[in-house]
Amino acid sequence: MSHSIPSTPSVHEHPYSSFLKQVKKPAQYVGGEMGSTPKAWDRVDVRMCLAFPDLYEVGMSHLGFRILYSLLNQDPRFLAERAYAPWLDMEQALREHGQPLLSLESWRPLSDFDVVGFSLQFELTYTNVLLMMDLGGIPLRSADRTDAHPLVLCGGPVATHPEPIAPFVDAFVIGDGEQCTPDILTSWSNTRGQPRAQRIRALSQIQGVYVPALYVTEEQADTGFHVVAAPVGSRDGTIPFPVERTFVQDLEEYPFPSDGPVAVTETVFDRVSVEVARGCTEGCRFCQAGMIYRPVRERSPAQILNVIDQSVNCNGYDEASLTSLSTADYSAVAPLVGELTERLQKEQVSLSVSSLRAYGLDEAVLDDLRKTNTGGLTFAPEAGTQRMRDVVNKNVTEEQLLETAHRVFSRGWQKMKLYFMIGLPTEEEEDVRGIVQTGARALQVARTLKKNNTTVTVSVSTHVPKPHTPFQWCAMDDHETVRTKQSMLRNEVYHSGFKARLKLRTHNPEGSWIEGVLARGDRTMANVLETAYLNGARFDSWQEHLKLDVWRNAFTEHDVDPARYLGTIPIDARLPWDHIDVGLEEDFLAREYKKSLRNRLSPPCGKAAGDFVHATHLAQANADSRKLVCYDCGIACDMGKMRSQRKDFLVQLGAEQPRVHPAEVPVKTPVGLPAAVPAAALAELPAEVPGALQAETSGEPRPKTMKPKGSKKHPIPQWDQGDPIRLRLRYTRLGRASFSSHLDLIRLLPRILRRAELPVFYSQGYHPKPAMTFGLSLPVGTASLAELVDVKLQHNRLPTEDVDRILTQLNGATVEGIQFLAARFLKPGEKGLGHVANTLDLVAGIPKKFLHESQLDENSLAQLIARGAQQPNTIDRKVKDATRTVQVANYLKDIHVGDKSQALDTAGALGDFVPVTMTVRMDPTGTARPGEVLESVTQGKITRHQIGPLVRTNIYFTHPDSGEHNDPLQPLNLQNSPEA
Q1: What does the alpha-carbon distance between residue 851 and residue 165 come to, in Å, rounded to a whole number?
Q2: Helix axes 742-755, 803-813, angle to 10 degrees
Q3: CA–CA dist 765, 278 (Å, integer)
Q4: C-alpha angle with apex 679: 676 to 680, nearest 5 degrees?
Q5: CA 150 to CA 116: how far, in whole Å?
Q6: Is residue 242 reached through a cis peptide bond, with omega within 30 degrees of 0 on the bond before it?
Q7: SS3 category, 50
Q8: Residue 818 contacts by C-beta under 8 Å, 6 or more apart in sequence?
Q9: Complete DSSP assignment for 501-521
Q10: What is the pLDDT of residue 356?
């Protein structure tokens, strides 16, 4: 199986190469990932940079970004590259070295592109948008850009209330990006040569495109809001008002990509995730996404299965995830999870399902998930009392929550997360305390099942009223109120009776406060935003980096009162986002708001009245002729088509009759709790606990179970892998791969093995891991010509023991910079790497300019090193908050100037260097790092930060008595002993 590795220049040619080793996770800035799509710059009509205003590890997990990247690059007219917000250390390095922010694929400044498109997922990334434009060489304000500058686009959910950032953006995409982004690029290409203003005006004719410069605003006397009043000087109706969203009617027309870049560092969701549906039927009144992404559109099971199969096989992932706003409401979720479990279990790939609902959860789904998921399950009750759940339209009862807890804990899960919010409309003290009480009741269920090692994490966020929701008119709690409620939650945990097993997580109220102001802000907020950015506001969603004083000062400087945007808004007031039409009827949100104030529920749409889950097989679906609920939100769903499609999906999955699914654990009503738990009985359970927002499963593969006799604990999952066979591999780690951390290597190599179709042997237990033993880790930025790893493989599934063929398979599945050079199967009883590798050869390149600055040349450096090597050198090594003295002389065997300069050339080093070769030994106490060695033997004249390229050239075993060297790829001539 061959895999696409981009053909890109050596990382040593990268404009950042001189300072990459000085920043955290440098691999995130150089691109070259497997699956990325570099295209010829001069062979396309339009070049677009997809810019994500957060870290690489966040943006690489975003599905919308992945969809657009694949869609645009499949079109020969377009080129799409990526850029992510640089972390603070990289921003400083870029400014110090006068370098711009570059795209990952072609290493070009953002200003070189025709179009730069930002994904707006969260208001607190606004300052990062300005940061990326600033570092990318693009004027911040749209009005300051000329014909030579790129078009700046913004899309995503936050684009539906765009006014605070409108003066910085040329055009917004309102709705689904797949539908209109190609049209925008085509228009931008077709109008090339025309004045910039005329080209941007042409974009406004595309449905879903909002061009702020074409509209005027006016202040409202009753609220002080600046609202969009009308198009500028347009009386002919050619400029749309309001601006209607664009949306994809059929997701099948835009297949979810199975390809795309595979992250070189660990990401927030480090797995293959597939969007199974868009939109939501549940109607939670706080949820903006559930309102703006209507109607629900589902991908076919055939497409979902195909994407996961291809992604696992081609990218080597060991975890797959189904995701949507409410994955449990995907119409064929039960048979889909069953089919995926059967497929993935064979490959020891775990399955997670995001956004589970705490009601009506099919027992077969839980049984299937249990086979491949051991970490825990997450649910979102959102509120702590039934009254508040009715207010927010969360169609779940206390009985259903406890029933779900019983089903989860009885199947052996030991962890449950519950997401809640405080600050919801009409909230009272008992509602806040009820959050903790709900978590404690879940633990009480575990106690009745004698599952005393379970934990419940209650995560509590602060409600931020969002535009285009029924709560858009509600007031938001101020800082002191939020802190009072958080203190109340902590007190309830303390008195809950489950203090050790009830974990409370709360969110930063200051960040929520800024988010609330920006969410309901108008164009007057743009000045505040720019001033905050210029005074250091960055990564505002990261609690440790939010600079509240900077924001307060910016509000004061521009005479903007934040309270204006956070109080209750009259329901008939004109709003700063009224000119954006997301498809809902004008009075729908107001009706829902009024119902919430009366504690009245609205049933889920798209289901028969009273139903919580969809039919799990065709016979059940055919027997149900009841009408599907529609409460007339304005979307006008085709209920007949919806019903027909659901039946077709069941047929695709072979779910025509009820599934015979013998549950491993019989599910009964929890001991001591009747099926319908009365309020009085609930009140007798322990107090309270908090939660947060979404819902997701996490964990790792583990098929059949074995339980020792007499054991009261849940059995440790086992599976029959047969006998293992050990394979020792030598490989290089050059170029981009040298800038990945050791932990990244630990997650990368199993993926390469999986792509090469080599069956890795896993450890047993609750968290199975690939059985691999690595050599001594390398500092980030250090290249190697001779890395070693021992891998256990499943002998009975190994297709061949021909090491040459295995090397060919591995090198066909590897990534840039990692080449497999040699392999050998180990015999039973042979020693592991820890016993057969105790010596390292390295070569360091010392830049001649540093020698000149230190008044040294090659000869004087050689003399300095020769003298220093004879001294009892020590150096202090900082380990976290402690300092350890390293006896360098104990580990250094040899060091001299010269030799092995070709190693620097092989590693791709560019520049004029003096090579310094050293041999260092390892033992159980550790070793000396190359930088420490050079700094100590030169008495600090060459510091570890002045070393240029560093290459490990060999790893071998030195016999303690004879001094004879032994290659670990050859059998060791010592008495065999059990493997370490």
Answers
A1: 50
A2: 110
A3: 36
A4: 115
A5: 6
A6: yes
A7: strand
A8: 731, 732, 733, 734, 737, 748, 752
A9: TEEEEE--HHHHHHHHHHHT-
A10: 75
Neighbouring residues of 639: CB distance < 8 A, sequence distance ≥ 6: 606, 627, 628, 630
| Pairwise CA distance, residues 937 & 886, whole Å | 13
CA-based R_g, the chain, Å:
30
Instruction: Name the residue with tokens 């339980």.
Output: 707
Q: What are phi and psi of 380, to 5 degrees?
A: -130, 85
Q: How many CB atoms lie within 10 A of CB 848?
A: 17
CA distance 965 to 960: 10
pLDDT surpasses 90 at 363: no
* Closest listed residue to residue 861, CA positions, set 888, 887, 894, 895: 895
Helix (H) or strand (E) segment spanning residue 884: strand 882-887
230 forms bridges with which residues in the sheet? 216
Between the CA of residue 447 and those of 415, 450, 454, what are the distances in Å?
A: 13, 5, 9
Which structure tokens are listed for 92? 């400083």
pLDDT tens digits, 187-230: 999 999 999 999 999 999 999 999 999 999 999 999 999 999 99
Alpha-carbon gap, residue 612 to 109, rounded angstroms = 51
- Residue whose token pair is 């939660």: 691
Distance, in Å, from the CA atom of 852 to the CA atom of 313, rounded to the nearest integer, reads 52
Indicate the SS3 state at residue 893.
strand
List the beta bridge partners of residue 444: none
**Is 627 exposed, middle or buried (CB count within 10 Å of its CB: 0-12, 13-18, 19+)?**
exposed
Number of Cβ within 10 Å of residue 805's Cβ equals 12
**Strands of 288-375, DSSP E:** 297-298, 319-323, 350-353
Paired tokens of 545:
């980096």
Per-residue pLDDT reduced to its tens digit, 444-492: 999 999 998 899 999 999 999 999 999 999 999 999 999 999 999 999 9
Question: Could you tell me which residues come within 8 angstroms of residue 962 by beta carbon, excluding any fewer than 6 positions away?
Answer: none
Please tell me the distance from the alpha carbon of residue 188 to that of residue 167, in angstroms, as a whole number: 20
Mean pLDDT to the nearest integer, 908-925: 89
d(CA 403, CA 360): 9
At residue 250, the 3 state secondary structure works out as coil
Closest Cα to residue 837, out of 716, 966, 949? 966
Question: 233: how many CB neighbours lie within 10 A of its CB?
Answer: 8
Q: Which of 254-258, 349-353, 960-964 has the highest mean pLDDT?
A: 254-258
Q: What is the 3-state secondary structure (H, E, C) of 206-238?
A: CCCEECHHHEEEEECCCCCCEEEEEECCCCCCC
Structure tokens at 56: 């690489």
Lowest mean pLDDT among 361-365, 676-680, 922-926: 676-680
The three-state secondary structure class of 912 is: coil
Residues 6+ apart with CB under 8 A from 644: none
DSSP H/E element including 58? helix 56-59
Specify the 3-state DSSP secondary structure of 373.
coil
Report field, pTM of the whole predicted structure over 0.85: yes
Confidence class for position 371, pLDDT limits 50, 70, 90 = confident
Task: Point out which residues pair with 877 in neighbouring strands.
Answer: 884
**Average pLDDT value over all residues in the chain:** 88
Q: Which of these, 376, 398, 533, 386, lies nearest to 459 by C-alpha position?
A: 376
Helix (H, G, I), strand (E, B) or coil at 472: coil
CA atoms of 363 and 361, how far apart (whole Å): 6
